[in-house]
Amino acid sequence: MAILTINNLTYQYPSSPQPALKDISLTLESGEFLAVIGANGAGKSSLCYTAAGFIPHFFRGELNGQVLIDGVDSSQSNLNELVLHAGLVFQNPFNQISGSKFTVYEEIAFGLENLGIAREEMKARIDEALALTNIADLGKRSPYALSGGQQQRVALASILVMQPKLLVLDEPTSQLDPIGTQEVFQVIRAMTKRGMTILMAEHKIEQVAEFADRVIALDAGEILLEGTPGEVLTSPLLPERGVGISRYTQVARRAQAMGLWSKQTHLPATLAQAVRGFGGADAAQEVNDAA
Amino acid sequence: MRNRLSFYIPRQSLIHDLNPLTKLALVFTFIIVAFSSSWYWLPTILFFFGLVPLSFIGKVGKAFLRTTFRLLLPLFIFLFVMQSLFYPGGVTPLLSLWIFSVKLEGVQFAYLTGTRILVMVSSFLVLLLTTHPSTLMSDLTRRGLPGALAYIITSTLQIIPQMQGKANTIIDAQRSRGLDTEGNLFKRAGALLPLVGPLVFGSLVDVEERAIAIEARAFNAPCKKTSLIEISDTGFETALRWFFLLLMLAAIGSRIWLS
Amino acid sequence: MKLIDSIKKDFNTMTLVLIPVAIAINVVIGQIVVLLRLPVYLDSIGTVLVAVLCGPWAGALTGTLSNIIWGLIIDPNAFPWFPVALFIGFVAGWCAIGGLFKSWWKVVITGILIAFTAAIVSTPIAVYLYGGITASGSSFITAFLLQSGRDLVSAVLSTNFLVEPVDKIATALVAFAIIQGLSTRYISRFPRSENAAQEKGKRSTQLIIAIAVAVVLVVIAATVLVTMLG
Ligand SMILES: Nc1ncnc2c1ncn2[C@@H]1O[C@H](COP(=O)(O)OP(=O)(O)OP(=O)(O)O)[C@@H](O)[C@H]1O
Ligand SMILES: [Mg+2]
To answer: C1, exposed or middle or buried, with CB in 10 Å at 0-12, 13-18, 19+?
Structure first.
C-alpha cells in the first residue's frame, strides 16, 4: 500500500519568484525507506514539508498537483488532521522542544495531551517511545539540559509517540556531533527494522547508502535521479550538480582511472562495498548483487 | 543576572499538597483583606500570624523570609524616607534635620502602605515557593484556562533563563573585546546595541521553527486536551475556596459600607 | 462576532510562539539596561514588537503577561503594574494599524502616544497602592513636586509626563529598528505584517536613523536629569 503519493507537484513559496519544487512525482510504499539528496537549496526541506503537510498548510504559497499522505489528500485536509498521519523531525534539535514542558517525560506527552489521549494510554505510549529511542533514563531531566543527540532523540520520541504512519526526517543529524549522529542513526535503524515508512532528506551519503531502499536526487527543485542507492549515489551527475558523494565512491573512481577497480564492478558508496570491491572478483559479484 | 526558572522549592508539605487554585484563592483573600481593611495593624497581623506560619508549615520558611526581605527592603527604605519627609498630610513633626522634618502622619502612612505591600508580595511568595509553575498551569488549564495561554506562560518561564544565559555570554564576549559597560553615559548607552542586537535577532529567528515543531505535535488540534499531570483536589478544598470567596466579598463589602 | 474572529486571526501559532520570546526580550533588555545604569527602562520593546506584528490584542496580552511573569520569577512588586503594560501593547497595536509604524518619525509619534497612555494609567496605581512613592528613581521628582506644594495626584501625573516620553519613544524606536532588521519573508509570517511595510527609503537607513534618534534622546534626557539633580 502506498503511504505517500505525489503526482506532478509544483510548489512556489509566497513572495518567491520561482518554484521550489517542479513537477515532482513519487510513491512511497509501506515499510519503504526513501532518501532524498541534493545540493543546498535543491528543495529537500521543501519536499519534506510537503510530505508532512506543512506545505501548503503552514507555508501557504501556490501548490499544483496532488499529494496523498496515508490516503488523505493534503490540499483538501488541514494540518491538525495531517499530523496524525505524518510526523516531522527536522534539523535543529533545540527548536523542536515545545518549550512548555519541564521534563523530558512531559515533553513527550505534549502531543498526546493536545490529542486528548487518556492518561493511562499516554503513559504506556510514552514508555514505549522512551525505550525505542533509548532515552528511558532521561525522563526526569529538563529537555533543555541535554546534549544535541539526546534532544534530537527526544524530538523523535515526541513524534513517534503520536504513532504516525509516515516518518519524515529532514537532515536529522546535520547539527549534531559524531556521537549524537550515531545515537540518532541507531534509533532510525531500529525504526526501519520495525517496518516504519520513512522519508529522509540527508546529505551524509554513507548513511543514505546504508539505510535507503531507494534514493531521489533533487536538483533545483526537480528530480534529477531516482533509483537504488547503488545507482544514484555513484552517478557521475552528482558531483556535477554540487551534490556530495561518498569518499568511498571517490576513492574507487580514482582507483578505476588507475586500473585498480574493474570497469564491470559497481562503484561503492559504503565502506563495506569498497572493501568487497577491492577484495576481488568474488566480492565484486556480491557487491553487484547487493546493489 | 541570575537565571532561574521560578521561586519553587520542592518539598513534602501540607502546603505543597494543596490544590494550586486553593492557594491562589488564599493569596487573593490575603491581599484584598489587607488592602480593604482600614484597621491599621491588620496587615501586620496577617503577615506575622498568617503568612509566616503558612510558610513554615510549607517548610519554606527560611527562603520565604529571606526572599521577602530581599525584595522589599529597598522599597521600604525608600518609602519611609520619602513619605515621612514629604507626605502631603503631614502636620505633626517628630524630629527636624536641617530643612527637613519627619512627620508622624508620614511615618504612619508609610507603615500602613509598606505592610500592605508586604502582604501582597509575601502571599504570592507562599504560592510561588510551594507550587511548581507547571502544576499551577495544568490545574488552571483543566479548569478552563485556554491552552494557548498556559503554553505562553510556561514557555516564557523556560525561555527567560536561557536568554539570560545568552545575555551573560554576549556581555562577557563583548567586554573581552573591549566594550565599555562601566564608562560614562555615552559609552554605556552605546554599549546597549552590541549587547541587544545579537540577543534579539538570535532569538527571533527560532520562532518559525518552534511554530512548526508545536504544530507537528497537534498543538492546534480542535479536541479537548488532556493532562499528564494529575493534581489532587478535595471536597474540603472546594469548600475552603468558597469560604475564601465569601471573605473577599465581605472585605470588599465592608469597605464600601464603611466609606 | 466579527471582533472575536478578527482577534482569533491575530493569534496564530507564530503569534503564540513569538509572545514568549517577546516577554523574554522585555525582561532581559530591562535587566541589561539596569546593568548599564541607563536612565530609562526599555522594558516594553518586546510588547511593542508583538503589538506591531500581531495586533493590539496580542500586544496587550504580551504586556500583561510580562508583568505577571516578572512578578512570578523576579519580583512580585511587578504584579500591580500590569494595566500599564497592557495599555502600552494595546495603544502601540492601534498606532501600528493606523500606519504610525512605517517610518522613524511616525514611530516617534507612536512613542509619544504610548507614553501619555502609560503616564495616565500608572498614576492611580502609584497613588493608591504606593502613596505616590514607588521604588523607582523618578519618585525623587514626585517628592520634589510634593514639597513645592502640589497635591499628590498632580505631582505623580506630572512626574509621569516628564519621565515617560523619553523611555517610550526610545522603546518604540528600538522596536522599529528591530523590525527593519528582520527579513520581509520572516515578517510576512505574522498576522499583521502589513503594519510593518515601510513607506519609502531603505530599511537599513530607517534602522540607523531610528537607533541614532533613540540614543541621542536617551543621552539628552540623562544630561537633563543629571543637571537637574545637581
Ligand atoms: N519560507 C520560504 N520562503 C521562500 N522561499 C523559500 C522558503 N524556504 C525555502 N525557500 C527557497 O526554496 C528553495 C528550496 O529550499 P529548501 O530549503 O527546500 O532546500 P534544501 O534542499 O532543504 O536546502 P538545504 O540543504 O540548505 O537545507 C531555495 O531556493 C530556498 O531559497
Ligand atoms: Mg533543508
So the answer is: exposed
Neighbours of B148 (CB within 10 A): 17
Residue range C72-131, pLDDT digits in tens: 777 777 888 999 999 999 999 999 999 999 888 899 999 999 999 999 999 999 888 877
Residue type, C173: L
How much is the pTM?
0.89
Tell me, what DSSP letter sits at residue C79?
G
C65: nearest CB among B82, B153, B215: B153
Nearest-atom number in ligand 1 for the CA of A91 is 27
Phi/psi of residue B150, nearest 5 degrees: -60, -40
pLDDT for A253 equals 81
Identify which of C126, C100, C97 has the alpha carbon closest to the alpha carbon of residue C112: C100
Residue C146 · residue B86 · CB < 8 Å = yes
| Separation of alpha carbons A231 and C167, rounded Å | 65
- pLDDT > 90? residue B106: no
CATH number for region C2-229: 1.10.1760.20
Is the Cα dihedral B151, B152, B154, B159 positive or negative? positive
Digit-coded pLDDT (tens) for C130-189: 777 776 667 777 877 877 878 888 888 888 888 888 899 999 999 999 999 999 889 999
Q: Nearest C-alpha of chain B: how many angstroms from C48? A: 14
